[in-house]
């Protein structure tokens, strides 16, 4: 049955005009296109932008906002900035978590990963392209949110209230330092969300697992803080209450209050007394009951990010694609 | 570089065979899943211009083999060479020249047919709109290109899968059960498309568990069962049979006894249905068999070389285990 003719081997002959080879830029473009074509992406981004209007609408509905702002521009401006950044951190983080988990999960779920890989697209190349495109989307979302916030702020306080004169006392260097620090914590928490989502979607190789595991991660470790607190109360063992200092969710929740320098502002209370008090950063969600400094929070977050990234890359690189 | 492989394949299959270029080759290819050998020491050679039928019942290991060819899964041992390069080490150079459709077509259901081609094209480094339109025409999906794939029938999805495989004008097409989900008319269309592509000089590697789907178009076939290669040959060689002859003689039982005493006649038997003798021939030659019989006074009324039809070969080669639960 064996052909007894000597066979030569076809070499890669440059036939016709198709010197195609997988291109990273092309991959990123395709990824962005795919993300944008999904309604989920548009709805989530729409949600983030819709929520951006919320604090301004509430302030607009409040009759004494103009008087308050004129009296204490720094206090009010800082609060607006902080609430806006908190919205971006929580909702934007949520949106990115879902979008990133979908970007990886859908590819496995619909089996399209084999279409790309069987054409010579590298596994590591594909994952990097996905990571890059989600990051680009995150950057676009953050920039969009900052622009929208600035416009809304200027519109409401500058145009509607005509409070332009107070801006100089609102935008102090202390204000910028605190806002910048808060902004950094937003970026860190977004990066952690993206890597977490990509990692669990790669591990689960499915859309539903990726999205639900990514979402329940933060629910679970926030809840664990409470559980461990009760365990601590029962056992009186310090270990249990210290443990949440190594949980990603609580650490990220705590990051703003640990890292953002408190802004000293003069504030007139409801009772008419003027106090100078440090304005700390908002926290949303549970934080470890034991406080740690910002360095601890950053290091723990960094370790999580590295573990997520390494796990995602090694599994993508090594595993058989059975989809 | 100045060897025969650089010449464009000629339209005649025989000329292509002479050129002898191996487009796809597996060396002792093996994949083990735990205790089970899904693919067992497989050695295949596919020549340029072949339409190579890779046949075997469900679970034979066809898809597993194809996934290893495409670098989707790592062989437990052995290797795959495509266009002269090892796929494990040269996937980025070699795989862009292969178009593949593995199992059910994998598609972006939320995109239109055209956008599916566009995103894959982008990933491959850019494919022109004209090319996208051309492949849509080729598979007969041009009219539905703007509809979301979610709304396509299975047959349409299968054709879009083929369109994706053809997108970058590959030298080698690897199609895993491309006829799955197609209606009879669709299967005929698919065969016509394969013939046209083959005429353009493409090498086609096509797997199927239904022989009838592919037998008319294949130049060579390999039959796989339980992960092992059962046979590999041209369709003509395979159907030529085992060199047996059907002989009609008077007193067949006496003739049978004499034949069975010969070294070449061990497998001689009588077909009870019509009383003909089925036997091998001395030196495989019908003439010698005739002489043997005549010398002993059994002048045959007829002596017909047995050709086997491919279906029955396929069944005999595979059915002893096909129904087994694995
Ligand atoms: N991921 C896997 N894990 C375990 N066994 C598998 C896996 N994939 C395939 N197999 C087994 O390998 C054998 C060959 O499967 P496959 O290549 O899909 O056959 P075919 O495509 O010829 O129908 C089957 O017995 C199947 O059950
Ligand atoms: Mg199969």
Overview of the molecule:
- The complex is a heterodimer of chains A (323) and B (326).
- Helix content of chain A is 72%, strand content 4%.
- Chain A is mainly alpha-helical.
- Chain A has one domain (23-318).
- In chain A, strand 1 (263-268) and strand 2 form a beta hairpin.
- Chain A is globular.
- By secondary structure, chain B is of the alpha/beta class.
- Chain B has a 6-stranded mixed β-sheet, sandwiched between helices. In chain B, strands 2-1-4-5 form a 4-stranded antiparallel β-sheet. Chain B has a 4-stranded antiparallel β-sheet with strand order 12-13-11-14, covered by helices on one side.
- In chain B, a hairpin with a 2-residue loop joins strand 9 (220-225) and strand 10.
- The longest helix of chain B has 16 residues, at 184-199.
- Classes of the chains: A mainly alpha (323), B alpha/beta (326).
- Chains A and B meet through helix 1 and helix 5 of A and helix 1, strand 1, helix 3, helix 4 and strand 10 of B.
- The structure holds adenosine-5'-diphosphate (ADP) and magnesium ion.
Which properties best describe this structure?
heterodimer, A: 323 residues, mainly alpha, two-stranded antiparallel ribbon, 12 helices, disordered N terminus, B: alpha/beta, Rossmann fold, six-stranded mixed β-sheet, four-stranded antiparallel β-sheet, 14 strands, 25% strand, disordered C terminus, binds adenosine-5'-diphosphate, binds magnesium ion
